[in-house]
Amino acid sequence: MTGAKAKGMYYSGGKRCEEIMDVSPLHPLFMGEVTGLDLRDPVDDARLAELIAAMDTYGVLVYRDQSLDDDAQMRFSALFGPLETSRRAHRLDHKLRLDIHVSDISNLDETGEILARTDNRQMSGLANRLWHTDSSFKRAPARYSILSAPALPSNGG
Q: According to its UniProt record, which protein family does this protein belong to (predicted)?
């Protein structure tokens, strides 16, 4: 699959266009980069099969410069199976900032303000700094985790 190019036909502005998806390794052991694919666009069954094969090959896929809002990310994520519900959605004392299908792992509270370093929500996320597998403890563990970073610090993040 190294450097594999997959062609798909789509329509843009009433014209038939050819979109070429490329998957290239980013590391000798795992991790690939997908280019030539806008995650906001519909994905047909053949393209989905190519993405699943790429995940099976690389374990981690990077899609750079995608302008995904939460709705677009949920649509793309739902192609791979049912979406989980955030565990915080079940807490009566907690107001959600995002949709119940989006796990909010940011440093923002429900009003968009930055959490204090000593806030329990910040403290409980410290373990996430290490490599881990999402939802591995659940009866039906997650097959994939699809992360997005709409805002990043200029360094150290």
A: Belongs to the TfdA dioxygenase family.
Token reading at 117:
């370093």
Q: Which two tokens stand for residue 13?
A: 């502005």
DSSP the chain: -TTEEEEEEEEETTEEEEEEEEEEESSSSS-EEEES--TTS---HHHHHHHHHHHHHHS-EE--S----HHHHHHHHHTTSPPPPPGGGG-TT---SS-TTS---SSB-TTSPBPPTTSHHHHHTGGGGS---TTTTSSS--S------SS--SS--
The answer to whether the beta carbons of residues 23 and 32 sit under 8 Å apart is yes
What's the one-letter identity of residue 63? Y
Let me know: does 101 contact 83? Beta carbons within 8 Å.
yes
Strand 4-12 relative to strand 32-35, pairing: unpaired
Task: Output the six-digit token pair for 34.
Answer: 């997908």
Pairing of strands 4-12, 15-25: antiparallel
pLDDT of 26-77, one tens digit each?
999 999 999 999 999 999 999 999 999 999 999 999 999 898 888 898 899 9
